[in-house]
Amino acid sequence: MPVLGSEAWVEAFGAACAAGGARAPRSLVLQQELTDSGTAWHLVVGPEGIDVVYGRHPAPDIALSEDTATARAVGRGELSAQQAFMDGRLRVRGAVGRLSEVAAVLATLPPVPGEG
Questions:
Q1: Could you give the CA distance from residue 80 to residue 75 in angstroms, rounded to a whole number?
Q2: Is 14:21 a contact under the CB 8 Å cutoff?
Q3: How wide is the angle at C-alpha 78 spanned by C-alphas 77 and 84, nearest 5°?
Q4: Per-residue model confidence as pLDDT tens digits over 31-79
């Protein structure tokens, strides 16, 4: 299995998201950043579905930053994003109010791929 945040991992996650068929009424770019490795990927969520892209987006609507251990725990369901945020382990910047536009879509995302 690919390592969290690697190009292979992002590709696997993107395939799982595309297979889910989730859509949002308006487009939104949500970037995920791993602070300890500098790795980033972003989700483009919109009427056409979800596209997951390795690397940083030049102008994400929202960016989430955390270390790899936090990302793993949230991805596995061992820690909620809300708790990570309240604990200071997850930082959010950008148009945070827009999260409500895609909350239902994000709730349907598949589990993150495992690691090897």
A1: 9
A2: no
A3: 95
A4: 999 999 999 999 999 999 999 999 999 999 999 999 999 999 998 889 9
pTM: 0.90
Domain boundaries, given as residue ranges, for the chain:
7-107
Between the CA of residue 101 and those of 13, 43, 74, 106, what are the distances in Å?
21, 14, 21, 10
Place of tokens 């997850």: 90
Count other Cβ atoms within 10 Å, centred on residue 111. 10
Reference 90, options 32, 49, 37; nearest CA is 32
Query: What Rg do the C-alpha atoms of the chain give, in angstroms?
Result: 13
CA–CA separation, 34 and 111 (whole Å):
18
Which one of 2.40.420.20, 3.40.50.300, 2.60.40.10, 3.30.1050.10 gives the CATH number of domain 7-107? 3.30.1050.10
Amino acid at residue number 3 = V
User: Residue 51, class by beta-carbon neighbours within 10 Å (0-12 exposed, 13-18 middle, 19+ buried)?
Assistant: middle
